[in-house]
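Suppose you are handed only these lines of text.
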Amino acid sequence: MKLLELFKRRGSADEARERLQLLLAYERKNRDQPDLVAALREEIMAVIAKHVAVDEDKVKIAMDRGERVSTLEIDIEVPNGGLKKEKKAA
Amino acid sequence: MGKVIVVTSGKGGVGKTTSTASLGAALAQTGKNVVLIDFDVGLRNLDLVMGAERRVVFDLVNVAQENAKLSQALIRDKRINSLFLLPASQTRDKDALTEEGVGRVIAALREKFDYVICDSPAGIERGAQLAMRFADEAVIVTNPEVSSVRDSDRIIGLLDAKTVKAEKGETINKHILVTRYDAARAARGEMLSIEDVLEILSTPLLGIIPENQGVLRASNVGSPVTLHEPTNVAAKAYVEAARRLLGEKLPVALPTVEKKGFLDRILGRKAA
Ligand SMILES: Nc1ncnc2c1ncn2[C@@H]1O[C@H](COP(=O)(O)OP(=O)(O)OP(=O)(O)O)[C@@H](O)[C@H]1O
Ligand SMILES: [Mg+2]
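From them, the structure of the protein bound to magnesium ion can be written out as follows.
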């Protein structure tokens, strides 16, 4: 125990409380409903797949849940070569 | 081809998740590519201990059921870039994981990583058996007390019977990791001695991790103790255990009773 820690409020326990509050708020809200991120990803992928052939392994997805907002990062490596050839409408 | 190590115990709460995080981080810090898999489906915790709980998108069940790509489910550690986590699912469905699914995931991870470390759930049921199923080696986490040693013995029996390696007639490499060792209680003769534990289990020792408040502080902030307080006695013991896993022949020192600092003594606090 360092001398400095005497003057801090409660040390690591504060951080533990904050992390838990954030996580549990999210988990309670999502317990009985389909995951928003999964739904977003499915639909975004479907839209992209309509236009280009993407290798699913080249899609990076990162999440960071914050207190008020969360960020969802979808990083897609799109091959050069333009649009997928659309079938001509009959 | 990477090595698959299961961290298991039978008994709950002995320090499997803590050990998975710290051994994994220590191995990764030597430059190895390491992935930690949380097998505690329904009760995931390794994400919290690793401080990655806000970043979970997909999990082991999603990948095993082929609803997500492995590369999308792996979470890279923010501190060590050769360390990854594959979180457990929070589903209540106990049968969400199948042996085929897990086998596929582990086979893919073996290709990419030097070490695949599986954090087993407590118990000896399906979940624990799936976690050990594809292991090459096992770290059996044991506290020096009767019920933990007895459960370790049952787990050793399962490792020798129910793993793919055992079924092929090969031996699975087993190590005992004694955790939460309380030197003061040992000095008073209130705890099973290390010799007793090793003799009863007739399995070699990987290390002795002392009971230490630094472990709790590290989990509060979401970090393996080896990263959060590298000079802490428990952290050093984990680093040495990791080196033994890598094959180094290091003697195991028995933890000694820690002296309390002057201030701690005045304030009547436990030594940190
Ligand atoms: N060396 C140690 N010193 C002090 N506390 C410890 C030590 N090792 C583990 N603990 C604490 O013991 C508790 C249980 O640890 P952990 O979650 O790692 O056990 P587990 O075996 O994974 O449990 P479960 O069976 O529920 O999965 C935690 O609160 C952890 O911080
Ligand atoms: Mg655990």
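What can we learn from it? Chain A touches chain B at residues 1, 3, 6, 11-13, 15-16, 19, 22-23, 27, 37-38, 56-57, 59-66, 70 (CB under 8 Å). The longest helix of chain A spans residues 12-30.
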